[in-house]
Amino acid sequence: MSRTSLIGIPVGRLIRTVAIAGLVLLILLYFWTSPLTNCPPQRPQFKQLSDGHHEDNSIAEEKVEKPVLLLWVWPENYRFDLSDCKTIYNIDGCHLTDDRALYSSSDAVLVFHKAIRWYWYTLPPSPRPSFQKWIWLNLESPTNTRKIYGIENLFNLTLSYREDADIPVRLRLTSNKTPNKDFKIPKKDKLVCWIVSNNAASTGVGKRNTYYNELKKHVNIHMFGNAYAKRLADEDYYPTIASCKFYLSFENSIHKDYITEKFNGPLSAGTVPVVLGPPRKNYERFAPRDSFIHVDDFPDAKSLAEYLTQLDRDEDAYRRYFNWRRHFSARPHLILQNQEFVLAICTACDHVAKHKEYQEAHDIYEWFFN
Predict the structure, then answer these.
(1) Could you report the per-residue pLDDT of 58-95, keeping only the tens digit for each?
(2) N or C: which end of the chain has fewer CB within 10 A?
(3) What is the extent of the structural domain holding 193?
(4) Can you tell me which family this protein belongs to (predicted)?
């Protein structure tokens, strides 16, 4: 008679059963924990072609590690060379493309807010790939931003002039490694200048127009641009600003952090900006307090005009507005038409290359409009 276990099963059979069960368990544990079966979906690998497009290259030995940023729509239909990110800003961390055929393999998709319509077909298709991020691009102020209801919770990242955006966009001053004693103020033949291309009331320009109309009663202002005079050629933009002692850096609407190229332009050209926008403390987050003049520092436009006239006569006092140049440098935008879009797109490329973690932006309207 064969030996039996306490439960009445022959010992040999019990040993074989336990061994087989243990082997099956080990196999199941292996596949359950294997990275081949326990990982998020991965985007297909591809290589870049000479024409800027990509082809599937899953089997090829050489794999491109750079993330892909798909530009869903060209902002304002303004196009630039996709290599400008590296050429101008030394940003080369992602593959930037506008080829929608690469949507399913793109790590991030950049969506320009003004190109979205209420019927939504202008958005990328849903559901998006699980590894993909959508970036909301909007450089307009709340005054000039149209709400498109239903998109508030579609995006992973916000790209904006706001400092508290996920990806803030701004051309900033840079610190000099050693004090710069060689800066020379450009030759001036005009006292106050202003370049205005758009003065439509719908853009919220009421306050700046009111201030300008009062200021011109007390000081001569040289006007340029489509709104009041002839448009300047691109090559004349910075030389014209540099020829003025003061430049009216008047924003079209007043909002937190809404400080545009109207401020950076005169700083980089060697001219003192006279700013109308958010409070002085907001400007001082981005530039030394003695690099500009704020209209809020004066009780009225007449007092400001008198101060500008006084500085015109006092060369030493005027020069003190350039003392910051010893310690900082201001870089001009290299592309004049819609230059802010180039910087924004390149900044997004840099962010996508450096940040792989998952993120969601909830209720972008609650954040942006409040």
Answers:
(1) 433 335 589 999 999 999 988 889 998 999 899 999 99
(2) N
(3) 174-332
(4) Belongs to the glycosyltransferase 10 family.
